[in-house]
Write the structure tokens for this entry.
Amino acid sequence: MTAGHSPRPLPAGLDTEIVIVGGGLSGTLAAILLGRRGYHVTLIDRHEIVPREFRVEKIAGDQIDKMRRIGLLESLSAKASPFSEIINLRKGRLLDRTRELHYGIFYDDLVGTMRAELPKTVQFIAGRVGALEANRDRQRVSIVGQGDITAQLLVLATGMGDILRRDLGIDRRFVHRRQSMTFGFNLKPVGASSFAHQALTYYGEGTSDGIDYLSLFPAGGTTRANLFVFREPDDPFVKAVRERPRDALVRNLPGLVETFGDFEVTDRVSSWLTDITVAENCKRDGAVLIGDAYQTSCPAAGTGVSRLLTDIERLCMFHVPQWMGSPGIGAEKIAAFYNDPVKQAMDAYGLQQADFRRSLTIDSGLRWQARRQVHFSKRRILNEIDRISPNLAAVLRRLKRSGAEAAT
């Protein structure tokens, strides 16, 4: 992957072959893969240097495999904080231990690291896009104060923003409004030089607290906290987390301090309210949506980066080479990407996991009470098997992981 293809001749009358609007993680990765294949790519983002934003902060599981497959894991691992064991707790008791490689990294560091990998075939423009036009043969992107860029293909990687999609007549359907809230903040130990564990996950006590889990892990030279809850923005608990995060955590997660160590919050609490949406009327000439621009994910489910990487792999390594082999980028070509069975399976899995995490956390019906009991009991049983026979436990975990991958 890293060697790349020879640059292709630029079509007459166009400024670039592919213009990507949005230079976050999805847009940057798409630009890298397409640029390495020799396409002339223009990547546009309003930020020349990525600001600190509360987005993706952890890479794990199939995401590591996909980053390795597209040739970018080495760059990621050089900047990120690796950790290989997570202590998982619920109701003050050990649930199990997660033993697999993870990387903690702040979003701006992640995107900045990826932007450093942009090949010479990619032109980066810092600017605000004011308008879009798309048709079968020519796409036009108007940059405020900088003129227009014309291209064969337009890729929208604009996250959850609506304005530019509306220029193309693309709508979004709400699957679940105010699906979840996520909080992020940094911790430091009190009364000790370090915490008792490098990484820890503490699951909510019951349906009434609305807490899915608290994830503590290393990133950027500090200990990072990500808290995932299913609460409304005006809930008193949400206000308490923003104003007095330590008190809110200690009160709702008894045993946290005893297991992890006492702590104080060292910075402002960031928060993110997630709506689950899917783009509609998007099978149109000339333009394609990837990542959150097409479908959003529940942060608690941890499927957002997996979906993003699936979009990028399928688009850049399979569909774009087919599209560019013949004139025009008509709606029928664009539809092939959205109808891709690999993409559709991953999109469906993302929606299913969003529903699962919410119901597992706050659904008080008898069915979900029983399912919750089974879910956590199975994890404790597997942990006991791990204590007695680590090899057997490893086999069972591989079978479980294979089943989840097969579902996608």
Observations:
- The chain has a mean pLDDT of 92.
- The two ends are 24 Å apart (CA to CA).
- The chain has three domains: 18-80+107-174+277-355, 178-273, 367-407.
